[in-house]
């Protein structure tokens, strides 16, 4: 029995774990771009940090003899538990709905918190904390209803367990069967933070993947599958900037129709993707104007070979202008001038 984990050790481990979990969840939230989840992770992270503060009341006994310090710390621990549950509810509604729906609860928790925080002595503190405890009981029941109403399945067990722990504690106090070892509320809170930490950790990967998908989609031209010009905001300028314009594309469109013209553009991009290296980029600027970013050793030979292959495969040529890619505006200006000169020379033939 002596080798078993003592209750004090269990709470100390839970305290440390909740501190780490709270910080990690807040940091996770900073990596999420969508505000709905970003704010939810912040609320949840602070909620778990407040639980860790509340757990100090279980781990350490306030026996300094200083009544003022004792009362102050008891207020801090109690209010931490109240606001932890409140932020937990805020996090759930923010996570599911994208906003905090139950704002009306502010009119209850803040006045109660004010009364407790300003209690002049222990007698008033006990009196006001009893009112606060009734509010927390309501808050727990209300949050449990919200969890099931919004079908947050991964929180079913942990929060139901907390509700049962609260019921057991109230039963023990009402019928005078309460002992120190029957007090399960602390265990209920630990279960809640563990359940929440597991849920957020599992969901984090999916949220990041979803963010990455929509981010990449926002950088992709919907017609051809090439990158669009927004990609330049994310690039570190390097290599060669090759501006390409398909020859006589307008005539092709007029002769065969826009549907065939769109098919040609898609075929062109697909063909280029199959010929350039993995680190090279094909970007659609607009219409039949494209840019290839490449670090090819001999870029002119590389582009000339592409030009011949495109003509053989698709039956259409292209003109191009090349410049060093150190700044989009400057590179485009230089490349566009060279492109214009090539088109002008072709028209003379």
UniProtKB/TrEMBL annotation:
From the broadest rank down, the organism's phylogenetic lineage runs: Bacteria, Thermotogati, Thermotogota, Thermotogae, Thermotogales
What Pfam families does this protein's entry cite? Answer: GGDEF (PF00990)
Alphabetized PROSITE patterns for the sequence: GGDEF
Recorded protein name is GGDEF domain-containing protein
Known Gene3D superfamilies for this protein?
A: 3.30.70.270
Q: In what residue span(s) does the GGDEF domain sit?
A: 237-349
Keyword Amino-acid biosynthesis listed? The answer is: no
Entries under InterPro entries matching the protein: Diguanylate_Cyclase, GGDEF_dom, Nucleotide_cyclase, Rev_trsase/Diguanyl_cyclase
**Is Transmembrane helix among this UniProt entry's keywords?**
yes
**Residues passing through the membrane, by range:** 12-28, 40-56, 76-97, 104-125, 131-150, 155-175, 181-202
User: Which keywords are on file for this protein?
Assistant: Membrane, Transmembrane, Transmembrane helix
SMART domains registered for this protein in UniProt: GGDEF
